[in-house]
Specification:
There is one protein chain. The protein is built from six helices and no strands. It is mostly helical and about 120 residues long. The protein has a domain of about 80 residues: Up-down Bundle (Methane Monooxygenase Hydroxylase, Chain G, domain 1), CATH 1.20.58.110. The longest helix is centred in the N-terminal third of the chain and has 36 residues.
């Protein structure tokens, strides 16, 4: 029983003993944080572009500017290795397709479902 306890502590002492392993762990953490920041910037840029396109008062020039910025961020993320270059191309393609697609006709949800008509009671 003593022998088992000794091996568990000895194994624990061995972890991260080498300086190269410690440095690799530090580098991995730095890269993880940088990649996370870059991915967040890309997501926010794409979200802002969609919001500007959906806003009724947004100008076409503003949407084009946001689209150009989002596209540039996607390209930079692909160049840095944060995302795959094909994933960046796919996202840019889908972004353009969604911006060029006509807006769907606004239909009230209550008119679609007959159950919604019967459940709505007049307020007293």
């Amino acid at each position: 029983m003593n022998d088992m306890a000794g091996t568990a502590t000895a194994a624990k002492k061995k972890t991260m003993r080498h300086a190269s392993a410690q440095k690799a762990a530090r580098q991995a953490e730095t890269r993880r944080l940088r990649n996370r920041s870059n991915k967040r910037a890309v997501r926010e840029a794409v979200r802002e572009t969609f919001a500007a396109a959906a806003a009724k008062g947004a100008s076409d020039a503003q949407t084009q500017t946001l689209l150009r910025d989002a596209s540039a961020l996607l390209d930079k993320a692909a160049r840095r290795g944060v995302i795959h270059w094909k994933a960046a191309a796919r996202r840019k393609s889908r972004l353009l397709a969604r911006l060029k697609a006509p807006a769907p006709a606004a239909t009230p949800v209550a008119a679609k479902t007959p159950a919604a008509k019967t459940q709505a009671a007049p307020a007293k």
